[in-house]
Amino acid sequence: MDHTTKSIAYVRTEETPRSAPPSKSGGVGGWLKENLFATPRDTVLTIITFLVLLWIIPPVIDWAFISAVWTGDNREACIGPDTGACWAFVDAKFGQFIYGRYPLEERWRVNLAGLLLVAGLVPIAIPSVPYKRENALYLLIVFPVLAFILLTGQFGLKPVETPLWGGLLVTLVVAIVGIVVSFPLGILLALGRRSHMPIVKMFCVIFIEFWRGVPLITVLFMSSVMLPLFLPDGVSFDKLLRALIGVALFSSAYMAEVIRGGLQAIPKGQYEAANAMALTFWQGTRLVIMPQALKLVIPGIVNTFIGLFKDTSLVLIIGLFDLLGIVQQNMTDPNWISPVTPATGFVFAAFVFFIFCFGMSRYSAYMERRLDTGHKR
Amino acid sequence: MGTDMAHQESVSAGADDSGRASLIYDPRVRGFVFQALLIIVVAGLVWSGLTNAHDNLQRAGIASGFGFFKERAGFDIGQSFIHYTNDSTYLRAFFVGLGNTLVVAVIGIFFATVIGFIVGLARLSKNYLVRKFATVYVETLRNIPLLLQLLFWYKAVLSILPSPRAMGIEPGSEIAFSLNNRGLYLPRIVPEAGASLILFTAIAVLAVWFVLGRWAKKRQMATGQQFPVFVTGLGLFIVLPLLAFFVTGMPLSLEYASLQGFNMVNGWVIQPEFMALLLGLSLYTASFIAEIVRAGILAVSHGQTEAAYALGIRPNLTSRLVIVPQAMRVIIPPLTSQYLNLTKNSSLAVAIGYPDLVSVTGTVLNQTGQAVEVISITMLVYLTLSLLTSAFMNWFNASVALVER
């Protein structure tokens, strides 16, 4: 011992004691430690969040499933001190929620139109399916015409007035017409806003900023109350059509701004290249600029669609019965009035809206990832 | 931008050989003709619309103009921040509606921002439970229409609360806090003589705080010495008004709500319509703000954090001094449009009966039939609000923006 302390050099003569193994970093314990209890602050947060969840989730599950009423013919079933959701109400009114007051024997036409829509949407949504151009033409031109014939009843089909339409049908009609009209109109407005012609540019800027600056509800009021005033005597539009005009103009302004973002992101060289190839303005736009610009802003376009889809619910304020409107109307049905009916109806409507919007946003995220890899190459 | 220049080049190229080619190939001539056509079409539409409106109004016997604003309104408004009775004019009713819209928008923006920042940060948390909770919040709320959420809060939550009697509130007793189907009841602070001194003290402290901040920043720039501005300011802000409160002989008292008959009287009441609108607007907008905050923070490159750590700056200071200032530049522009959206969305109040601008003007429209005037003025107000907000936010954005070469 004496010998070793005097020497400057350190030579170990015996084995060091083994240190304890590092705390587990794999498995369930390791995962918990890393993700839930990494620091004292984390532990506190975890406990608080857990308590909040404990406070929220069991009552919700109890309300939606355990204490819920699944069968019944009228309000009697849903009246009770501790009843949860009254799903029997949704079950009884399901037809109305989907078709509104569309005649029972004609509902196959709505179903057929829906089927035609799905037949067009599915292949265009899957990137590997060919014939995208034909598919888009079908969706933007052929399908709207077919759906119009089927739903309103042309060529020998029994006419169905639009006041009879309702429920998810109206929601989808408003949303799809809004999308189909706002897309080309938005492209034109975006091009106009970037035009070198001062008057065209000014009109487009005023148009876009005006619609973006006012709430949709005032637009709907305007189209339902003010529009008839500006039409010649004797000319009158259907209420649904007036709402459609309002929604389409409103959403085309938003669409224009999204597309303008895409146009601005295209390098100047692309425009110059198109000019150098002696393409006219429209050729260059159609063949060089737009394909790139639209591809860049697909997520933005889908987000506008989602916003539009949610905004369709506003038509209930001007007296149309979209999904939310018809759910709300049925809540006041004396046969089904109960303390839990409103919550049940709203939760059902929320679920339907959620499925559509969440689906679209997931799809947009998927496309974003797909296109992103293309760019990073 | 780039295109404009490209177009200009093609324009001048076209002008050079205009002698050789036919006139219809000259971009300047084409542009001129096209714009002239556009003006003619738009002017024609406006003209025919106006003449139609004029004829239609005459047929309906409605005189156009804003004279009706001076007439007696004759309807009641549930909530107003300026004096209003049903004997007041339409103009006054209009301002009551505008005031209600502004109040709910300002308070909604405050709550949406606070909740949005918390949720946005929670989505980036390393804690699994917190992160997932925030994700579920965002995905649920932003995928359900706002109108549905408002109706849900109003009709399925607040309206089915029990009445004050059913809650077992004794008639005549004083209640400090009660949430029932009549609204949220809280005590009201009643100022007595001398209470204004407290308010003045508070305002004076704020001014001192501001000057102190300027001075401390100047001193730090000059000498490098720091001064605890926030702690000092907050301390003064609490202590001095409290001192004023005791010096003036405690001139504030609380007025409690109580039940008389079937109605609650006195106290400070927040009506269910207002609560539902505020809840819906702030929770919905917060889900969008959360995503903006998250994207803004993710936009600051990780190298910035590593650089700060390499300089020995602690994690808390790193986020405050390095990450957040850079993230704010990304966050502010989309945040502006969310504030605008919230203000415009407050017009959905009409669906749940909160007397906002659209709801009040809707009543005015029904009573007077002056559709054109009423709707255009409503739209003009929202346009002005939008332009003012975006002007303010642009100014703010410019003041935090990175000064680049």
UniProtKB/TrEMBL annotation, chain A:
Recorded GO MF terms: transmembrane transporter activity
Residue ranges of every copy of the ABC transmembrane type-1 domain listed in the record: 168-359
Alphabetized Pfam families for the sequence: BPD_transp_1 (PF00528)
Domain of life: Bacteria
Ranges annotated as spanning the membrane: 43-66, 110-129, 136-157, 163-191, 203-228, 240-259, 296-321, 341-360
UniProt keywords, alphabetically: Cell membrane, Membrane, Transmembrane, Transmembrane helix, Transport
InterPro entries: AA_ABC_transptr_permease_3TM, ArtM/GltK/GlnP/TcyL/YhdX-like, MetI-like, MetI-like_sf
Membrane topology listed for this record: Multi-pass membrane protein
Cellular component terms (Gene Ontology): ATP-binding cassette (ABC) transporter complex
Subcellular location: Cell inner membrane; Cell membrane
UniProt-listed GO biological process terms: amino acid transport
Broad class of where this protein is predominantly found: membrane
NCBIfam families on file: HEQRo_perm_3TM
PANTHER family: INNER MEMBRANE AMINO-ACID ABC TRANSPORTER PERMEASE PROTEIN YHDY, MEMBRANE COMPONENT OF AMINO ACID ABC TRANSPORTER
The family this protein is said to belong to: Belongs to the binding-protein-dependent transport system permease family. HisMQ subfamily.
Name used for this protein in its record: Amino acid ABC transporter permease
